[in-house]
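TICKET #2291
ISSUE: user wants both folds in one file
ATTACHMENT 1:
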Amino acid sequence: MATIGASTVPVVIDRLYIETLDGEAAGYAPVVLGKDVDLVGVAYGTTVVVHGIGYTVTAVEPDGTGLTRLQLRRA
């Protein structure tokens, strides 16, 4: 579960491997996956709290199947 504003929504939290375009830096970033309908209105900069840890949304990626992945950065 994640808290976004005043709402609590079901999500799956995971780590996504990210590499910069020049290949100089790589690592893992937290992401959450949830239903589009539950993540309506979430945008870059939105605060998301998962397991008591605050994150800031750095990318919103709907996949066209009804799910959206949010890339996060620890707040």
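ATTACHMENT 2:
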Amino acid sequence: MSLRRNLVIVMIGSLASPTMAQTSRDWLLQLNTITTAVPFLIINPETRGGGMGDVGVSTSPDGASQHWNVSKHAFIEDKAGVSISYIPWLRALVPDISISYLSGYYKINKMSAIAGSMRYFSLGNIQFTDQFGNNTVQFTPNEFAFDLSYSRKLSRRLSAGLGARYINSNLTGGQTVQQATTGPGRTVATDLGVYYQNEDLTVFNKDATLAWGVSVSNLGAKISYTNTSNQDYLPINLRLGPRMTWMLDDYNKISVAVDLNKYLVPSPPVYQIDSSGNVAIDPNGNPIIASGMDPDRPTVNGAISSFYDAPGIVSFENGVTPVVEPGSRFGEELREISYGIGAEYWYDDQFAFRLGYYGEHISKGNRKFITVGAGLRLSVFGLDFSYLVPAYFGSTNLQSSPLARTLRFTLTFNFDDVKKDNDGPPSE
């Protein structure tokens, strides 16, 4: 296995859960986690959503909407804004991994907006060694991405957005691994988003706002780190969900939001084994698939077929003949959906308190955590923080999570004293 894929798997593993408890259910034990390159693109880099269980596709627009849903900026009220975030990442494992995030937006008029962001992921200082364990060079692997987006209202309550992203991932510093010359992986991707917001509702005799959002992020070409033909998928992600906000009175309001997430990349298949228990190989030297689909597919094909390519729960009768448990393929597709639930309370649009929960199936990564957060707004200046607590209820056989004690910090600056545009929104 190449260093390129080893590094990718290690990064994915660091995002996943600790060791799972034993269970007698086979469908819990058959792990089939989806892995991609550049997983830093899917890590939430900002604090507000970090306090709400990593929820954000339909939350009210703000300076960090670029990560969640590029179409939300068309509904933002301020003329311009900037958001700066910093996250010490995986501090339960290592002391020097961090994520930095800078985002901003500008309202062109009342109908449209442009936005951009930059994120930088530093993996800390690493000592490289050769095959004999001798030290070679020290290097700080890093990844970064730049993106720009444009969003526009299609009606008084509906908007759409499109973003473009450049990605650079330098994990090896140009080291030669297994006779393969390595280098930075570079590619481009797009984000697509739709956002709906209706502020003219009354629920439980209170003024209310209903919103929903749909976003596809990181839709782009595969990425490669070597001079060979091996390429890896980007973390193409479908995110959708609703939000409901109630105005309790002139000073108090509360919002509840839900996000559902699914990777639009192929599920790993289950491979045929031979009588010795090894993976069976066809005459062309390729592993034989017992259930599922060939994972080496074009990006668009892989995104579409990701809704029906799960291999399901496979056992091997007599150690060789594959048997797929009835209904397990559809069940595995459902298990690939992770979810976040978050609540946010505001007092006088100045003080906020947030609470959330994120869940992922045990066979697909097993990330489960509770989040809390708070926010303060003073004129154009704002400060947010959030804290993550692993949440494996009823489990007694789990090691500590690498995500434990994750803190996020964000500074925001919103400017509404620029001359407002007089253009009105389009009619529905």
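RESOLUTION: both attachments delivered.
EXTRA DETAIL ON ATTACHMENT 2: The domain at 3-267+336-415 is CATH 2.40.160.40 (Porin).
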